[in-house]
């Protein structure tokens, strides 16, 4: 009988919630990246779309203080902005949106940037199959605005 009780105790302990948010990050496979440290523009709050991958994640608003008026055309600059130490690759909007599924998303980002700024896409790697796509532009106030979505690509 004591072995049954020991086994029950073992199962109970194994199923306890550790309460640690770092476990959530590790089990999801995504490192924590910064997405918002400024006011989110209205056009981005209305984006109701999902990025199609193995997980179909929703697009989330991005608003980051950059402070400069020139574009963020280098992946390393963007990696520093979002506090990411891994690989960041810039992809053209055309290559990212091949079938034009995300035209409304790109348009919302353009509006958030004041319609004149170029939209940029950055692929932020979180291992071999997990990544985040940031679709962003730079507004007149030097704030990087846009959306991001998590993806699993197997």
TrEMBL record:
Gene3D superfamilies: Nuclease A inhibitor-like (3.40.1460.10). PANTHER family: PTHR42093, PTHR42093:SF1. InterPro entries: NuiA-like. It holds the Pfam family NuiA_2. Residues 16-31 have a biased composition (Polar residues). Residues 1-31 are annotated as: Disordered. This is Uncharacterized protein. It comes from the Eukaryota.
């Amino acid at each position: 009988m004591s072995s049954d009780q020991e086994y029950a105790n073992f199962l109970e302990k194994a199923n306890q919630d550790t309460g640690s948010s770092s476990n959530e990050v590790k089990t999801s496979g995504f490192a924590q990246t910064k997405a918002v440290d400024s006011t989110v523009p209205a056009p981005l709050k209305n984006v109701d779309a999902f990025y199609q991958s193995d997980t179909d994640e929703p697009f989330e608003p991005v608003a980051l203080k950059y402070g400069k008026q020139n574009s963020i055309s280098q992946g390393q600059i963007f990696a520093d902005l979002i506090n990411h130490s891994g690989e960041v690759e810039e992809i053209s909007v055309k290559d990212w949106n091949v079938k034009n599924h995300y035209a409304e998303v790109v348009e919302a980002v353009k509006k958030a940037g004041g319609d004149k700024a170029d939209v940029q896409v950055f692929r932020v790697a979180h291992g071999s199959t997990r990544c985040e796509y940031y679709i962003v532009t730079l507004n007149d106030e030097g704030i990087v605005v846009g959306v991001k979505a998590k993806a699993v690509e197997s």
